């Protein structure tokens, strides 16, 4: 399987090379960052209502005044699915004054 020559494509290629079967379901974690805990909590509440099956965790970042909101989606991690999900999280996080900060697969 080949992937586009961008950051997402490179990560998927590395995972494939490491022996991860990308045709199976995986827990993919999408990372959102916020400067205000209240804004992050507002997104947590929104997701609890709109996507109750999604695993969502909120914790302080190692940087001061930054909050990490991790959203775990069970999916087949195709390039197209990852890019589409990241775009959705980017728009949603922006509504709560945060931003998407990448993704990873729980190993």
- Biggest sheet, strands in spatial order? 2-3-1-4
Query: Which blocks of ≥5 consecutive residues have pLDDT under 50?
Result: none
CATH top level is Alpha Beta
H/E series, N to C? HEHEEHE
Count of DSSP-assigned helices:
3
* Count of the domains: 1
- Please describe the biggest sheet, giving its number of strands, its sense, and whether it closes into a barrel: 4 strands, antiparallel
Distance between the termini: 20 Å
* CATH fold name: Alpha-Beta Plaits
Task: Write up what this structure looks like.
It is a single chain. With 107 residues, this protein is an alpha+beta fold. The protein has one domain: Alpha-Beta Plaits, CATH 3.30.70. Helix content is 39%, strand content 30%. Strands 2-3-1-4 form a four-stranded antiparallel β-sheet, with helices on one face. A hairpin with a 6-residue loop joins strand 2 and strand 3. The radius of gyration is 14 Å and the shape is elongated. The mean pLDDT is 95.
């Amino acid at each position: 399987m080949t992937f586009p020559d961008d950051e997402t494509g490179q990560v998927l290629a590395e995972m494939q090379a490491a022996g991860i079967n990308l045709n199976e379901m995986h827990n993919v974690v999408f990372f959102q960052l916020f400067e205000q805990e209240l804004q992050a909590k507002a997104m947590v509440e929104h997701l609890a209502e709109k996507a109750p099956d999604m695993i969502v965790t909120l914790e302080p970042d190692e940087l001061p005044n930054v909050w990490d909101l991790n959203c775990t989606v069970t999916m087949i991690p195709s390039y197209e699915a990852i890019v589409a999900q990241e775009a959705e999280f980017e728009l949603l996080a922006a509504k709560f004054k945060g931003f998407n900060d990448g993704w990873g697969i729980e190993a």
